[in-house]
Write a structure and sequence with these properties.
The chain is about 45% helix and about 15% strand. The protein is an alpha/beta fold. A hairpin with a 2-residue loop joins strand 4 and strand 5. Helix 7 crosses helix 8. The longest helix has 21 residues. It is globular, with a radius of gyration of 22 Å. It starts with 7 loop residues before the first helix and ends with a helix.
Length: about 450
């Protein structure tokens, strides 16, 4: 069963694992404080989010839409920085005065949220509030479920995909998008022979790396991705070696260009510094709009002879604070129902590049129009919708997932610079396993 309570020692352990932040005071409307009401008598639901820029604007449109149709509740959305920063601040508030009723997390924060004991069992709220969850994508529910209970409501879903400069592929005679590492290598060779554009460009993106392991049918961490029981060490070594050796082979052949960050990679791809690269589908709309050439999107590759398992539902979700008053809890779930409804999810997908976690959204005229204008976005969604549903594609449940990704990023950067694959992976594995062991000791 899930450990619902944390000792003081284990709470401090979580706070020291790179997800803690300075406590940020906000208006009441969640946590342990008395619910605030507006001048017209609506109960305030405080919502901490991690969406800035154009995504923040799109999220505010969702919030405004809910508030306009609700006679009882007003959601107040506050940006709190990255997922890790927001989660750390949520822990520091400990559901006290000023804490939110709803907090948006990244998939990497799920285990820590469960461990904290500060969030509600969403499955119980679904039952208590007669919430109809039958339309939610089972692949999305799969990630946020542990031991038969869902601990976060899927909301903004994305996954890594492969972006292609279709004009360069056409000139190189590449008629089909590759589905294997070997196919990508062949495409790179064809591009190198016909163009001055560097065939492949990548940045060290830990999330994409563990998703590629998933697609190859491997567990990222042991104990069936931490789904059977708490994970104690990484399990990705065999699949990760294939990925790293593929990158090394491209680098050795002079067909590879490293980028320093996601923004650098988007800029490099749009300026035709490379013809193929891997990034989150959440950036698809931005990337397509930024490019003067035709952009195609493909599924993540697997090793030749390996059946693609699919990917897990990355992105973000909505956690509900534990211990809310019945009224605030009802308002939080009403907002979740609105935010995950087909029409709202379809509009959200079109505004952002995230794809809907509602099956009904795929039947709407809104999404049909979006996919008519941006057919590439449909490819991203199909990669998740076609994924098998099991503990592999449930994805890694690990409090040290941010550390795991950081260690992999450091290892891949070493390979970018000519480092040995086995040595780089040995260092990553040791660092992450040590962190997992230390974190597990802190959880009572």
């Amino acid at each position: 069963m899930i450990q619902q309570n944390l000792t003081r020692r284990s709470f401090l352990t979580l706070a020291g694992l790179g997800i803690a932040g300075t406590a940020l005071a906000g208006c009441s409307g969640g946590g342990g404080a008395a619910a605030e009401t507006t001048e017209d008598g609506k109960t305030v639901i405080l919502f901490w989010n991690s969406m800035d820029g154009s995504r923040g604007d799109a999220l505010q449109k969702v919030v405004d839409g809910f508030n306009a149709q609700s006679d009882e509740f007003e959601v107040r959305s506050e940006y709190q920085g990255s997922y890790d920063e927001s989660t750390g601040s949520f822990f520091n508030m400990a559901n006290g005065a000023g804490a939110p009723a709803i907090v948006q997390i990244g998939e990497q924060n799920l285990q820590a949220m469960i461990d904290s004991g500060l969030v509600a069992n969403v499955s119980e709220l679904i039952s208590a509030q007669s919430f109809d969850d039958s339309d939610l994508l089972e692949q999305a529910v799969n990630f946020y479920t542990y031991d038969g209970a869902m601990y976060a409501m899927p909301f903004n879903c994305s996954c890594p995909v492969v972006y292609y400069n279709q004009d360069v592929l056409d000139a190189a005679g590449v008629t089909e998008l590759p589905t294997t590492f070997e196919g990508l290598t062949a495409a790179a060779e064809a591009i190198a022979a016909s163009s001055d554009v560097t065939p492949v460009g990548l940045y060290a993106y830990g999330y994409a790396l563990d998703q590629m392991v998933t697609n190859m049918g491997g567990y990222v961490v042991n104990n069936e991705n931490g789904r059977k029981e708490r994970c104690t060490e990484v399990a990705y070594r065999d699949q990760m070696a294939v990925i790293f050796n593929w990158v090394k082979s491209l680098n050795d052949a002079g067909q590879f260009s490293p980028f320093s960050s996601g923004d650098d990679a988007i800029s490099g791809f749009s300026q035709q510094q490379c013809a193929i690269y891997i990034d989150t589908s959440a950036s698809a709309r931005q990337i397509i709009d930024a490019c003067s050439f035709n952009v195609s999107i493909g599924f993540l590759p697997v090793e030749e002879g390996t059946e693609a398992m699919g990917i897990y539902a990355g992105g973000g979700a909505l956690c509900i604070a534990d211990g809310l008053s019945e009224d605030v809890a009802r308002g939080a779930m009403e907002f979740c129902a609105y935010a995950t409804s087909p029409d709202v999810q379809a509009t959200w997908a079109g505004d952002t590049g995230y794809f809907p976690i509602s099956n009904g959204a795929y039947e709407t005229e809104t999404l049909s129009a979006v996919y008519g204008e941006y057919p590439q976005l449909q490819v991203s969604a199909e990669q998740l919708r076609s994924s098998k549903v099991n503990n592999i594609t449930a994805g890694p449940l690990c409090s040290q997932l941010p550390q795991l990704r950081t260690d992999l990023q450091t290892a891949l950067q070493s390979v970018f610079n000519g480092g040995d694959v086995d040595e780089a992976l040995d260092t990553a594995v040791q660092s992450t396993n040590t962190a997992i062991e230390s974190a597990n000791q802190g959880v009572a």
